[in-house]
Design goal:
With 94 residues, this protein is mainly α. It has one domain. Helices cover 68% and strands 0% of the residues. It is built from 4 helices and no strands. α1 packs across α3. It is elongated.
Length: 94
């Protein structure tokens, strides 16, 4: 059997990231007691900061996503029309 992947609770992740951001301990000292590689703590920090940023943006982030979804629908519609055009007889040829 393969090695089971270790998981850490969101509470522990938050505790470690906040200690790191506050400069309470170097990342190596935070990682060692939990058997975590330092790069994982850096990844958690990045995810934490991105989530904070998204939360602070609030509705602005949602508006951006909505605008992209609407543009995607418009482009898909145009693509569908383009793919169907060889099968549709022109109105002036009837």
């Amino acid at each position: 059997m393969g090695k089971q992947r270790k998981t850490w609770s969101p509470e522990l992740q938050e505790q470690i990231v906040l200690a790191f951001l506050r400069g309470e301990q170097p990342v190596a000292e935070l990682a060692r007691p939990h058997g975590i590689v330092e790069s994982l703590i850096h990844n958690w920090r990045t995810q934490f900061l991105e989530a904070c940023r998204a939360r602070l943006l609030g509705d602005h982030a949602d508006q951006g996503v909505k605008a992209l979804e609407e543009e995607n629908e418009r482009l898909n519609s145009l693509l569908d029309q383009k793919e169907l055009s060889p099968y549709i007889a022109p109105a002036w040829g009837r």
